[in-house]
Amino acid sequence: MLGPVILAASRSDRMRRFVSAAPGTKQVVARFIAGENVDQVVPVVQDAVAKGLAVTLDVVGEDITTREQAYAARDAYLELIERLQSLDLGTRAEMSVKLSMFGQALEDGHELALANVRPVVEAAAAIGTTVTLDAEDHTTLDSMFTIHEELRKDFPQTGCVIQAYLFRTEADARRLAASGSRVRIVKGAYKEPAEVAYQAKAEVDKAYVRVLRILMEGDGYPMIGSHDPRLISIAQELARRAGRKLDEYEFQMLYGIRGEEHLRLAAEGHRMRVYTAYGTDWYGYFMRRLAEKPANLLFFARSILTRS
Asked: Active-site residue 184, yes or no?
């Protein structure tokens, strides 16, 4: 029951100030956020690659209010790509972007977000990697999918994310699986109303399996975003039934969560990609990580009490 409360708090400026000032926050944030800038995140990427892992990088910060902030987000990703190229990491690291960070919610936001994300996708392609468009709350998805389709005309490797808890997702999965695109399936981490999304964990899990089966049986490249051992096992079985080789799908997990499982899957020959977030505007991302798992919240509360 705490999850929806935490997700609501992720949009509260008052809670943002409280959490940011709490004495144990920095310690816990470091568990999920790999650094504040490119210089700090590069060693994390290099360490992951040395261990046989792939990476997707997310510059955190989605609640922007000006066009200047949207341009700054674009430039932050271009800086990241330039650094990856200089270190010859392009084939092991891709980017994940939230279109809200590129101005999607501003006036003429759809056109602004497309104009800002296109040079990032172009630059990524030039160094041999790609970009995945993250899913946000349900009101943004039609715009996201339209931008995804537009980008794929020139960059067919551009990926997108679908969220199992939304009622619409099975239809989205059928359309995307048929098109041959790269699709990450996640459970969903936004507070959504009962009119558009499953609310019970059991129903979300069932929907996840249904959508995953569609992706595995389709022509696209499924990316399984989950830390759930049961869903990981089901994904492996569905891949086997669909006749997929190990390089025809991948697992994705978050930086700071189940690190031993990252290494185990990679050792078995799976492509294992670590979703690695960095940046200074970490609050929204951090709160969603707390909402996803009660143990994360307990870890945070314990850290605050210890420091206090």
From this structure: yes
